[in-house]
Every structure is written in structure tokens, then in C-alpha cells.
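Re-run requested by the PI after the first attempt was lost when the workstation crashed. Everything re-entered from the original request form. Ligand of interest: magnesium ion.
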Amino acid sequence: MTTASLPTVSGAPLATGAVAKLRWALADAWTVTRRNLIAYTRIPEALFFSTIQPVMFVLLFRFVFGGSIGHFTAAEGIPYPDYLMAGIFVQTMAFGSVSTSVGLAEDLQKGIIERFRALPMARSAVLAGRTTADLIRNVLVALIITGVGFAVGFRITTGVPEFLGGVALTLLFAYALSWGFAVIGLSASNSETAQVMAFPLLFPLTFASSAFVPVNTMPGWLQGFANHQPVSIVINAARSLMAGPKAAHLAGSTTTSLVIQAVIWCLVLLAVLAPLAVWRYRSRT
Amino acid sequence: MTDAIEVVDLEKTFKGAVRALDGVSFTVEEGTVFGLLGPNGAGKTTVVRILTTILRADAGTARVLGHDVEAEPELVRTLIGLAGQYAAVDENLTGRENLTMVGRLNHLPKTVVASRGVELLEQFQLTDAADRPLKTYSGGMRRRLDLAAALLARPSVLFLDEPTTGLDPQSRNDLWAVIEGLVDGGTTVLLTTQYLEEADRLASRLVVVDQGRVIAEGTPAQLKADLGSTVLDITLADPGTAARTAEELSGDGVLLASIGAKAPTLVGTILELPVDNGPAAAIEILRRLDQVGITPSGFTLREPSLDDVFLSLTGHKAEAANGQSAELPVPGGRGRRRGGSTTESREAR
Ligand SMILES: Nc1ncnc2c1ncn2[C@@H]1O[C@H](COP(=O)(O)OP(=O)(O)O)[C@@H](O)[C@H]1O
Ligand SMILES: [Mg+2]
């Protein structure tokens, strides 16, 4: 047995070589991911935000606002449930990304990161584990929204591969956003502040967008912002994949062009936000 | 003997110009317990954070088992264990899950992680609570789990930052026994504390730090030799009587010498007198006070505290400078300290 051969004083093994280091970096990220996922199952609030809230948004927009907004989208040939789906996906996942900042701020506050820093684990594991856990949680959110969507009348009019492509795009966007919220979480003095800091950013980005209403129903000055900001572009791309070329036409573009734009936005956000988060993590004392 | 820890001229200034460390040096022999004794804000945690690679020093060097913490942080992390000032355990996991996580992050084989976990849970009397979430744990249980996590990879050098702060006397005694056991197994321990009693019980050598500087160094016995083994606290009814009593006793060198007393210190209306033989000295002092018609309103015998170390170490220094005295809460609820730091102070527990 290995235990018996362990001397009284030994310490942890040390990785030598790039391959061993990479293997451990992945293993450490996975350990932290699992730890964060376990936490989600044990905090009722987290479970609420990631599951009940999206369901409520679907119901709210489908049945409360949908009656009047639906006329505008129906006039463009898109039933409101089909219009709504992509918007709900991006909006709930963007709101869900707040948990990245809250989680990190809490870890800092409670001192667990202090322990992590003194362990022989990969430096990248804390951030990678946090954002990966939030990505996995978003996959669960996607499943729930899809189910609820079907229950309230959403139908795939394109094809399953296109629909899954749309979901993947929203997941990629949410993953990129997570790194931005990581920066906020690492800059906040506590988890409450982290949460409060996120919403003034999220509200204009998700509501002044094409998520719930066609942008052409907004005042002219708002349309300029709403048409070009990344949330709208990602939603338009996802909607085109889920609801067909009419949605792309409504956005004044083609599906291919929208998808390319959206992917570029996601990659640019990742390329900027991830290094920023890493830098924030390293410099935080 | 080899040095397990070597710290030379460590300096650290935080943002906002807080000078946390102002040239701290000390060495710790392998296989011993070393105490870092000092009041709140002295810089103890900062030293521990630098030694455990969490924080970088502005200047100076720190080595653990011969390895520079700045040049070889990854290697150093495989050698050390840390139980920080505040239990760094995960609230949302169970006790066992916490230990498993730490074991994995130490890259120990699965079977070792599992068996070490069982062993440590048993050792720290957490077996019954092992599969409960930490939300149901008491403060003492969290501390024990935190220490178990620090010990998981069998570190050669263990850092304990105020390990017993906030614990009840029973838990404190249990923890002391565990630490003593570790040293018997060959582990080097660096322990920070605000309690002289704790340093005295556990540490073979110690430094006293104040405002980022080492102000005394030696064995607990050497430190206490300067203090006397007992302190008489004589409380007087009013400042006038207190001043007269101080004068009366200070003036009588023969009496003080006969009871092995150091110079008395007046703090408010309490006269503190370090002596070698408490009960014998008490009889002499009370007899003397009776002769001159002074009746104290309170009279206690107690062990010297960190307070008294500070009085004796910084007492004349403070007087020479500006005679300033700061009131700070200290363990045991005796709220006085001279020449203390000006940093924030936590309530005494
Ligand atoms: N991260 C930090 N930022 C700014 N000041 C700090 C920080 N950490 C500690 N300090 C300050 O440095 C001094 C020493 O602190 P610390 O090492 O925690 O003392 P101790 O552990 O002895 O109580 C204190 O004045 C404290 O306020
Ligand atoms: Mg401290």
C-alpha cells in the first residue's frame, strides 16, 4: 500500500517538465471546477438564479409582454416564441455570469484563495475552475430554457444542428463574459459589491438590445447603440440559427455574416478579458 | 543544525504607506517550534504570507529549507503547510470533501488522499462530522479542519498563524497537544501568537515583533527572566493613592530586592509589580502597605502576559521618546499596553 511507504515527513510531489505541468494544470482546474459545482448544488440561491429565474423570464415575456410585442415580430414572419428564444438564452446566461464575480469575491473574502496560493497547485486553476464551472452550469440552464421554450410554443424551424450551433454560440459568449465578471469579482471588496457592480453593466446591455423586442421599435438614438453592441449581435446570430433567415433579414444581415461577427466579438472579448482577469488575480494582495 | 527558515531584513510596505515590515530577521532551526509573538498589527501575518509565497517582500530574503521563496515558490509550496489566521476552509463542502480537495491540489495519489483524510479526521475528532457541510461546524471544528488540511501532505515546515485565537480553553489545550505531537515527528513549526502563555508552552525560541520590527529575541525562559515569574496587580482607590504607593515601593530598594521584584509600573490606578515568588512577595507587600496605612481596593497574582513583555521591552523606550501610551484590548480582557502600535485592534475575545 502506498500509505505505508510514505515517510513521516514528505510533502507534496513536484512537477518537472512541461507535460507534467500541463497535466497537473488541467487536473487542478478540474478539481476547482468540481468544488464550484458542488457548491452550486448546496446553495439554494445559486440554484434559484440558475434555474428558476430563466424560467420566470421565459414565462414573463411569453405571456405578459408577448401579447403586444408579438404583433411586431409576427409582422416580420417570426412567431414571438421563436423570436424570444435566442434573447432569453443570451440574457439569462449573461445574468448567470454574475455568479463568476460573486463566487470569486466570496472566495477572496473567505480566505480560501489564501490557502490556494500556498498550495503547489497551478496558478491558473482558480480562474479556469471558476469559469469552467459557470460554463457547465450554463449548459444546464440551456437545457432548462429549451424545455420551457418548447412548452410555451417554441419550435425549431431551421434544423437541430443549426439550433445547437446557436446554443453553442450563446455559451461561448457567456464564457467570454465570465472572464469579464472575474475581473469585477477580483476588484470588488466583497461579494455584495461584486453583485451590485455587475448590474449597471448588464441591464443596458441585455435590455437595450434585440433580446426581447425588435430594435426598430426603439427611439432612433437608442437604435444605434442597440444594433451594434455585442449582446445584440450575438443574439441576432443565435436567432438566425434558431429561427431562420427571416431573423437575419430583420437584423438587416445574413446568417453567415452575423455568425462571423458574433464569433469575432466573443474571441476579442476573451482575448482582452482573460489576460485582464489573470493579471488582476496575480496582482491582488 | 540546518535552518528550516531563514529570514533576513524583510521589508514590506502596503499601499497607503502602511509599513508592515521594517527589516525583520530571524532563523528557525529544523525540528523546532518557533514563536512569532506580537500584538495585533505587528506584522506577523505579513511575515507568514511572505514565507508561504502568498505575498512578495519589497526587500530582504526569505528561505524555507534553503530555498528562496521568491526564486523557487513552486518548490517551497510542496514543502510547507499553512493554517492561516482565519480558517480557510470551504463552507459549501463537507469536512471530508475539503480534505480531498486539498489532497488533490497537492497532487497526492488518490489512495493516499483518502487514507490521509480518514486519519486526520480521526486525529482531529471530526469523524462523526466528516460528511456534514461546514455550515454545521463550530468555530473550533473549523479550526481543526483547517489544521488538518494544512497537515494533509505531511509538510516539513508548518505555518500556524494565531492557531488558537478564538478557541475555548479546552480546544486550545487539545490543539497545543497536537502541535507538540507534530514536533515529536520532526516537523518544524512557525507559530504566531498574541499570547505569551502559548509561546511559552510551545516555542523553544521566539522573537517579539512590534510595528514591523523585532524588539526581542531568545528563549521564552530568557524573556520571562526579565519579567519575573509572577505579576502582582495592586489596584488603588484613586490616582493620588496610586502615585503615593508607587513612590513608597519604588523608594524601598531593600524591600524590592528581598522579594526579587523589578521596578513597579503604574498604569492608571493599578500598580504592576513583577516578582519572582508571588505568594511570599504578596505577604511582604501587603504588610508594608499596611504599615504606611494604604489599603488596596484590589490585589491579584497572575502570570506575566504579552502586555508585561511590552512594558518591560518598550517601557523605557517609550518614556525616552514621548512617554506616550496607547490603550489596546488584549487577550484576557486586560486592556492596556504601552508604546503600542496605532493600527486597528480587534476586540479581545
Ligand atoms: N493587504 C494589506 N493592505 C494594506 N495593509 C495591510 C495589508 N495587510 C496588512 N496590512 C497592514 O500591515 C500591518 C501588519 O499587519 P499584519 O501582518 O496582518 O499584522 P499581525 O498579523 O501581526 O496582526 C498592519 O498595520 C495592517 O493593517
Ligand atoms: Mg495576523
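Saved to the shared folder this time. Chain A has one domain: 17-284.
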